[in-house]
Amino acid sequence: MAAQAAKKTGGSRSGKEGGAAKAAKANTEDYLRMYRQMVKIRAFEDQANQLYLSAKMPGLTHMYSGQEAVAVGICEALTDEDRITSTHRGHGHCVAKGAEFRQMFCELLGREEGYCRGKGGSMHIADQAHGNLGANAIVGGSMGIATGAALSAKLQGSDFVTVCFFGDGATAQGLWYEVMNMAALWKLPVIYACENNGYSEYTRTDEIAAGSLTARAEAFGIEAHRVDGQEVLAVNELAQRLVERARHGEGPFFVELDTYRYHGHHVGDINRDYYRSKDEEAEWKERRDPIVNFGKWLEAEGILSADDLVAIGDEIRAEAEAAVAYALNASYPEAGEVDMHVFAGVDHALPYIDGYAKGAGA
Amino acid sequence: MTREITLSKAVNEAIAEEMRRDPSVFLIGEDVAEAGTPFKVLSGLVDEFGPERVIDTPISEPGFVGMAVGAAMTGTRPIVDLMFGDFLYLVMDQLCNQAAKQHYMSGGKLSVPMVLRTNLGATRRSAAQHSQSLHALVAHIPGLKVAMPSSAYEAKGLMKTAIRDDNPVVIFEDKLMYQDKAPVPEEEYLIPFGAANVLREGRDITLVATSSMVQVAAKAAEALSAEGISAEVIDPRTLVPFDEATVVESVRKTSRAIVIDEGHRNFGVTGEIASRISEKAFYHLDYPVQRLGAMDVPVPFSPALEDLTVPTPEAVAKAARRAVRGEVADAA
Amino acid sequence: MPHEVIMPALGMAQDSGVIVSWLKNPGDPVKTGDALMEVETDKATMEVEAAHDGYLADVRAGAGDSVPVGQIVAIISETAERAGAAPVETGAERPAPAGSPAQGGPGAVPEGHEVIMPALGMAQDSGVVVAWHKEAGEAVAEGDALLEVETDKATMEVEADRAGYLAAILAEAGDDVPVGQVIAVISAEAPEAPIRRAMAAAPQAEAPAPKAAPAARAEPAPPPVPARTAPPTPRPAAGPKPAGRVLASPRARRLAAEEGLDLADLVAAGHAPPFHVADLETLRALPKAAPAQAAAGAGAVGVVSAEVDAAAFDAFRAWLQEEGTAPSSPRLLAAFAAGALRAAREHAGPLTVAAGTLGTTTAWNDPDRAPVSADLPESDARPELILRDLTGTALTGIKPAAAPVPVVTITRRGDTLALHLAHDATLPEEAALALLSGLADRLQEPLRHLL
Question: Which residues lie across from C303 on neighbouring strands?
Fold first, then answer.
């Protein structure tokens, strides 16, 4: 992790001393929902991992496990109209923004009922109904899209906020600096959420990032925060404040969330000794797990019992398993779909591009 | 009513009309507002529509193209001004990986109704990085439409269609033609994509030409006509979609074809069109399909060299003569 | 519901993995996330974790086993009692697991949680069992090292991912076990008859690769090498092979075909290809060919045809080439034709024969009486026979027109030479038959006739 010296490090409080956090989210229903959403992400990823390992899932996938508090803490501060852009490690954002297991697993397995009719797969799930503009397989590739969505909201006079999720690795992309500049110039309602999981693919972030990430945003006059990304209440409390301010024209903002990915860069990145130790992994998993720790807090607060926590886990796991079973039996798209959805308003692209079929309107 | 206006004015009118018609349309790019671009194509638009809808950006092509993609995905219809076609290289990820693929990757959920207007054309003595004709790059990418206006009339009609299209459209204007005038109706009109324009009917040979090369082909046809050679001139207007049927039908009639395009000849538009003709009109061909494109060298600065690199009416006429006379082609 | 433990796909292009060792024994209780086994691929060695809580059962591959990706190596059953009791439903995409323990019967593998040879790298097929650290029947605790597995990259311990009893050891030290294959079974309760055997002793040694796995690596059998018992057929040593076509534009070709015109007639008339539509005018204006004239009666042409295998002639020319004398094809044919004509007419006097290819014709006096290598002077005499050697052209046939002197046209189609003799009354039919027959003989046995 890069050495950081952020001046503003908002809301980095422990869940156990959650008095203020509680004030920010006094509704136990919200706590329960956040807990369930994190468990859902973990359950989804466990199933996805198994699907991949068992060669039932085509392609490549990147696990979000360990980073659940980031997606949930932020997305719980958003409405369905607020937008997010996501990354190759995007299942967590997708679930947190309200996506359903069935359509997600169908998409992962290339089935017709998937969110993208099987045309996107793990790295391109988009769920427009919940404001998810899609995961992006180009590192940093969605920074322009997110900033443009914020520009669009401003032009349309709406108060929708866009959150741009990206990893520490993406901070090395030049695009970010171009769009941060414009977002700051035009006070766009966008929040750049950098999930710093310590590793840029197979390389320690402090080997690829000079100086401080927050300072980079601050150089554009963007208010920057750094928060413990394993503490869902801390993340959510900060997100609530920033989203509200962004709605009122005080954006953009930058948030660096310290977090950790439990798996490798992708499923199959198994031999990680050369870039990180098993002790380090164990430390994060055993002491800083966002779900376990939040569960303990809920128990300590008397909101849920230990049995409740187990029951929630079982229920959601069963739900995920059922969704997987459903998806495994779901249909693939018909062959005729292959040249559909290339152009809006055009049924089949192949005759269209050769001039033998007219598109809608044009 | 029809009056003669410049291509530049035609583009300006098209954008202004569409911005009046649809409040979700906005302009974004470098020096599009007060400056109205270096070519002054957009002059005056900021006065009517204000800086909120005519947005000057920093010199950050990937940034503002990416933002246009995001804006297009969320309810607005951006027109992006990319000052020179050569800057396409800077924005390839945003255009080809993001804009072109959103609709497909999302299974039809997301769409990107944006226009990227830029230019092409050499012989402005602008050297290798401000003179290229790079439309083949984007025409290669599924999900992008590509329009190539060849006159003021075409520029206006195609621009209006592009703005109303729900897909990313890249429209290339010939920067040498901005001051060229042509009759343009005052009444509103649109030119549909995928419908080629037969500028001139002919019997002996088909000249398929795009954008800047349409006038070159027309001049060649005029010269050939004096020699008794009747050339048909076709402007496809859009590369994607491409009106294959009109071109093929013409070549079946004339039995000969020359394809002229200002992009580099190597692996480019001329090869694509020639190949389609060969595939669909083979048994009607009486001569190998000929191609004339920009010479396969970086565009040189020196006028003495630059002028050698672009197809001329003389070169087109010469190739046509050989074809019509059946002079043995290289292939024989 | 019991859950399958399968040989995982751990890399981008991995077909199988080798179980280095089991980290849990059959019957061991396992918790989600417990390391079940160590698996090695060509890239790395890694632990395979349990995806479910339960009990390790029905271990179907042992240390050293190389197991195809996607193959079941063990089962995690819900209860210790049920460990292995219910065979897992295998989906349609999955073939029956390798070495699947027989159900019941003496020597049956005890029920329990299967331990598989893990995939430890991106392209690892198998792992070799180095040693078992537990004995069959021995109680194992979660995390106990079950066995050691070696791959080409590393040696790893496979730990028990649940507590129980090592009810079966299904691969012995030295066994190279495909990734995913069951190498042990951990049962929840102490097995009555623990099993220990080498992999080879498994009822079924190999299973088909799972459907979902990357394509099998079996290489196609090499194409049979043709036995070279005979030398290759002699080929003409020089001269381009005829392309078999008259060069013409597609449109000219199509229109000619529609009108029943033969573009070859243009060649025969001395016009140079390629032909375009404009040349069809010339073609249409050419004198109509043989059939019409044959019907005319007066000056009627007789046509005699023959076909011979070109092999002998080709070989003969090749031989001449090797000898350093390479007469042109027309020269050689002129010699044969003159000989044949002389024989047909029983004529001993001087004989002038003109021969040539398209457009060029040379006349020689008595070409059959000089060595073919000799440089004969051209003759100005009126030839008594004209020979058109079209073997080097695309032409394959002709309907000869009437000619003032007999004309022999030779065309070639593949390995066959076609001979056409057109003659009128000046060459009686008997003589015409003898001439062409004699020429055919000479082409089939060139040496005999020349020497």
Answer: C422
Pairwise CB contact (< 8 Å): B194 & A349: no
Q: How far is CA C86 from CA B71, B250, C5, C76, C89, in A?
A: 56, 72, 14, 11, 9
Q: Which CATH number fits domain B2-185: 2.30.110.10, 3.40.50.970, 3.40.50.300, 3.40.50.1100?
A: 3.40.50.970
Select from B283, B328, B332 the Cβ nearest to the Cβ of C251: B283
Q: Please give the model's pTM, rounded to 2 decimal places.
A: 0.69
Closest CA to C242 of C270, C203, C273: C273
Q: What domains are there in chain C, each with its CATH number?
A: 3-201 (2.40.50.100), 250-288 (no CATH), 302-450 (3.30.559.10)
How many beta-carbon pairs below 8 A join chains A and C? 47
Q: Where are chain B's structural domains?
A: 2-185, 197-324
Token pair of A202 as six digits: 């197979």
Across the interface, whether the CB atoms of A141 and B93 are under 8 A apart is answered yes
Angle, nearest 10°, between helix axes C429-444 and C329-345?
Answer: 140
Residue B103 among the catalytic residues: no
Task: Please answer yes or no on whether C251 and B286 come within 8 Å at the CB atom.
Answer: yes
In a mutational test of the B interface, the residue from C263, C276, C277, C281 whose CB has the highest number of chain B CBs within 10 Å is: C276
Residues of C with CB under 8 A from a CB of B: 247, 249-254, 273-274, 276-279
User: For C205-262, what is each residue's pLDDT tens digit?
Assistant: 444 444 443 443 444 444 444 443 443 333 333 333 234 578 899 999 989 988 889 9
Q: Please, which residues have CB within 8 angstroms of residue A347's CB and are 6 or more apart in sequence?
A: A340, A357
Question: Could you tell me the domains of chain A?
Answer: 15-331 (3.40.50.970)
Query: Class assignment of domain B197-324?
Result: alpha beta
What angle is formed at CA A343 by the lines to CA A96 and CA B146, rounded to 5 degrees? 125
A9-13, B90-94, C95-99, C223-227 — most confident range = B90-94
Contact assignment for B24 to A356 by CB distance below 8 Å: no
Domains B2-185 and B197-324 share a fold: yes
Annotated catalytic residue, options B13, B18, B61, B232: B61
**In contact, B184 and B2? CB cutoff 8 Å:** yes
Annotated active-site residue B61? The verdict is yes
Q: Please give the ipTM for the structure prediction.
A: 0.93
Backbone angles phi, psi at B155, to 5 degrees: -60, -40
Q: Is the pLDDT of residue C189 over 50?
A: yes
